[in-house]
Each structure stands twice: as structure tokens, then as C-alpha cells.
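call fold(seq) -> C-alpha cells
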Amino acid sequence: MGSPAIAAFLLGVVAGLRTFTPPAALWLLRRRGALALALSAAALLEYAGDLYPKAPPRTAAGALAARLFSGASCGWLAASSGSVAPAAGAVFGGAGALTGAYGGLAVRMRMVALLGPVPAAILEDLVAIAGALTIVNAL
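ret:
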């Protein structure tokens, strides 16, 4: 990853897709421990919950706030690993989360039309997992 600022933004984009995937990847690959397991369990529950047709939209106030917090937190941690101020990393992560939430929703709707709702959800899960792991490994 060329820059912690880019990593912060990209982790935010992934948080916009799946709230718990980036923090789970960060803690699993960098810190381990009970919090890593709890975040991983939350990510798995989020993947399962996303398959239900009555899952709240990612752009609803509560869901969007959680994605912003996740992106900002991950951005803070990513920036801490380099030459970027943690507060700036949080801003980059939050901006990435908004980009991921709204951009991801647009892509998801196209994928639902092409593949159906469950395959589209699973594909988005796989993109989020691969993205988070790639970004964290590059830090």
C-alpha cells in the first residue's frame, strides 16, 4: 500500500460495504485476542443478516453511522502505522465509508438485477473480505 492515507480510505470503503469486516481483519491480522474473535463473530453475523430481505438498508441512519464509525476507527489505526496523523486517517476512513456505502449500494443493485439477491450478497461479502485482508496485509 503506497500510503497509510490510501489504506485508511480503502478500509473505509470496505466498511461502507460491510461494517465489521475491516476491524475484524485489522484485529485478526495485527492484534489478535478476544476482541478479534468478537469482531469476527460480528462480521459473520453481518454476512448472515445481510441475506435477509428485511435487513435495514446500509444508508439508513443507524447503519450508516455504524459504517462511518467503523471506517473512521480503521482509518485512525491505519494512519497510526505510518506518517499520517491519526485524525486525518479517521477523516479519510469516514470518507471512504460514505463512498463504500453509497457506491456499494449502486453496484449491489446492479448485481442483484444480474445475479439475484443471494449471489449478489455473497459476492459483495467476498469482495469485502478480500479487500480488507489485502489492505491490512499491505500496511
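The chain has six helices and no strands.
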